[in-house]
Amino acid sequence: MSTPATSAAPAAPAAAPKAPSSPFMNGNVIDGKAVAAKIREETAAKVAELKAKFGKVPGLAVVIVGERKDSQTYVRMKKKACEEVGIASFGADLPDTATQDEVLAVVAGFNANPDVHGILVQLPLPKHIDEQAVLGAISVEKDVDGFQPLNIGRLAMKGREPLFTPCTPLGCMVLLERCGIPIKGKRAVVVGRSNIVGMPAALLLNKRDATVTVVHSATPKAEAEAICLQADIIIAAAGQAQLVRGSWVKPGAAVIDVGTNPIDDKTKASGYRLVGDAHFEECKAVAGAITPVPGGVGPMTIAILIRNTADSGERFITGAVKVSGAGRQRKGLAKLIPTREQLASPLPLLAAAVGVAAGAVLQRATAGRR
Ligand code: NAP
Questions:
Q1: What ligand 1 atom has the least distance to the C-alpha of 243?
Q2: Which helix (H) or strand (E) is 341 found in, with range?
Q3: Does ligand 1 have an atom closer than 6 angstroms to the CB of 9?
Q4: Any idea which residues carry the catalytic annotation?
Q5: Which pTM value belongs to this model?
Q6: pLDDT value at position 323?
Q7: What's the CATH number of domain 53-147, 3.40.50.10860, 3.40.50.300, 3.40.1170.60, 2.60.40.1120?
């Protein structure tokens, strides 16, 4: 005989948001070192394959100007990472007193060197050197940092793909993807809008069909908090220690913390420790996934740099792009960038612009007939 139910079963407690399961996560903490190690392993395999098939390996040239200790450490780490995966590393170590023309001449040399497939100028440059002029002189086909306006422009445009994407923001995206965190249709907030992290991160999220909001230094803090609280994904890149608090994070959201900020810590021999732009303990208690600092985004930056270099090497070695005599092949969209000579004498530039406009009109006129 069955007993009639006397009351409805009590409602189950609201399930805690489920952390995505991934071999790259410990609980809800993303292991950036493990993802980076996997990327390096994949890159090493690609380099070995190119060597076996074509007898050539990708090459990365790193240009450093001055004696900044932190820059020298980063350059050493980049060269070591190259060696570990079989990428040939080239370098130019210029003194603080180097002139802009000397730096430009070094870049031009690497542009023309067929064994170099990626060129990176370590920033910051000494104050007397125009950073934009130097970065702009790197061949678009060798711009492994992805900072060339043409590469950024293509990242921003629908239906276009850049040859290279900036390493740190792409590293953030790879962490999300490898950890199985959905992006398409999700709300994402990027805290910060710098040219090297925040802005390209927002463009990448947009390209992957997230609905993106950017907050910056002029966003009132309470508003930034309210906006972040709506987000499924937060990328924190403000350079402000522990700006993003637990109260900013929607339960189950992913927090990708790019920040690396030294704060005083008397328990450390160095007297300081690094913290992110998110308050790790508070955010970890609420987030579905979070990157630690250090050990989250940091290791990804170099891993993506060597992957970008290997991809570039593959393009050159297989003949998908070629080094012209001047080291800079001006084809496709690159043709639209005025050369220094064109800027000095606007007439050819005008002619080129008229030619491009005429081409566009002709293309539109013939589009329906194809
Ligand atoms: P940045 O050039 O100083 O830019 C900081 C951005 O954050 C700016 O857009 C700024 O807004 C915004 N911002 C500043 N205060 C803010 C606030 N209170 N609320 C919201 N936005 C704020 O720094 P970055 O080069 O992008 O780097 C950001 C952080 O990432 C730094 O800690 C840096 O060390 C770290 N980083 C790490 C790696 C890595 O590999 N792990 C690589 C690169 C950078 P405005 O535009 O209005 O000034």
A1: 18
A2: helix 340-344
A3: no
A4: 78, 122, 145
A5: 0.85
A6: 59
A7: 3.40.50.10860
